[in-house]
Specification:
The chain is α+β, with helices and mostly antiparallel strands and 529 residues long. Helix content is 15%, strand content 27%. The protein has helices at residues 28-39, 109-114, 128-138, 192-206, 289-302, 337-344, 348-351, 361-370; strands at residues 13-20, 60-62, 68-69, 82-83, 87-88, 105-107, 174-176, 222-230, 238-247, 258-262, 276-280, 316-321, 326-330, 352-357, 379-386, 394-399, 409-418, 427-434, 439-444, 451-452, 455-456, 458-476, 485-489, 501-507. This is Galactosyltransferase C-terminal domain-containing protein.
Amino acid sequence: AADGNRPRTIARWEFFVVEQFDSETFNRGWNFNVGLAIASAQKSASPEITDGMKVEFDCAVIQDVDYLPEKGVDYSDCKVPTQLSAEIDRYNWKTPYMSSAGGIVGMRLEHWRKINGFGNDYFGWGGEDDELHHRLRLNKLLYGDCYPFCKNNNDPHIGEKGISIKRPRKGHGRFSGKFMHSMNHTKRITDSKAYARNVKMLQEIEKGSDRWKRDGLSNLAFRILSTATDTSDSDLGITYHHIKARRGRDSFDLREVHLAVPLALCDDSGAGADGWSVAPVGEHVPMDITALRDFATAALRRAGGTCQTFVSKSLSFILVDRRRGLAKILSDGDPRLFVIFYRSLRSPKSDGLIIADARSRDALHAAHAKAGAFAVPPSELSICTCPLSSGGPKFSIHQGSMCSGGGWQSMPGGYLRAYAKPRADFVAVTWCDNEKYWTQRVVRGEQCDKKWAGLKWVHGGTFYAARGSEFCVGTRQHTNEELSFSRVLAQERCESDDGYAHGFTFSGVREAPTFSSVSMCAGRDDAGR
């Protein structure tokens, strides 16, 4: 309803930031379940949870990091399940729709347990918040009426509980994303197959499936890789908890990843130039290239060398996943690659190997290419269409072999493969997104104009296609700004009588990537070298 209590002063806050430490698509519901299980000391969920982790709390709130509350929001308002973010700037100070249970939602622990938390299997964008609405509905925990979608003051649904989740009174549910990149909040479908699975699960619960009883807090299983607590704001009653967690019950110990360092890197090593230092990284797991270089230097010195002339900051590393038979090169150019490597391992002990190398990134690339062991396979892309009431359809380039749902359909002949990084003699093609109408402008090159046809545009992605005329790009600048966008067709020319001007052509990559595999081994001989 539009009325309610004024916000109270909260004396104690516990912030849990859960980092999903794997290579899977982000799972919002699972991350919240992990945080709630740790805060409530649900020991069935993880062998690392102890009674000492439990904190006393009245309300547990899921908070989207890209929305900040404005004055008047009451985080202690959770006597019944409440959608605190009832007024969001990007939705004209409303929620996106009546049945929305997304954004910032607070409940008591008893209510979270009654609905079994979130579903654990919603990977990627979409579905987990709509399922939350149905979990509340099936447990008779919807206490809201038609607000903020009541037609007028005489709407017969005013005061009729059970229509939606309870929301704070007007003016006390305002959240803004203007400083937190909210323009990127909505269109996040990067895995169309995962999105299709999400839609299927949501449809099942809409029809009354009891899966929610088995999927949630009750079957939650994870391992805690690390925890960190920050009490620097304890004078304000705030404690921060940062948790790295991994799905499943299998052990995952990064301390068991092995680092191999050739002793020849240190010219005064007492162990000989042909030896290696091979050992687990141990207790202090390096999480960036600077720490890894320091670790390699320490390994050389433990082997007997003083390494007085050794310059560790020039070291590169080969990150080897032995299970997949793949390796990537870590240098100063891509610092995130190291954590991505850690996350991608199935078993750190048996899969992970890091090899120190004095050569530059370019030299290592050249060496792998010469050995026929350097591969850059092309990525899959789909050209999709969506009908409009007039002037359509509109077109969109989606990553992957399928369109991303939401009304988008694959265009006949619209599948192609192209490279994600620049290649000689290939055409750079960039799609630019307008997030007001969810339209795209496709341009040749790597840059987007920030303003075109009176609209704002942001960079959506770039791929590098073969030269040719398999696909054409045409662009239309219309008096109706909603109809100003590009189209991509599987033909040579794109001009038309309805305003499209032909721009350029390109072709998909047809050759299959060919590369041979090689084995890299590091070890000790009988002399311990």
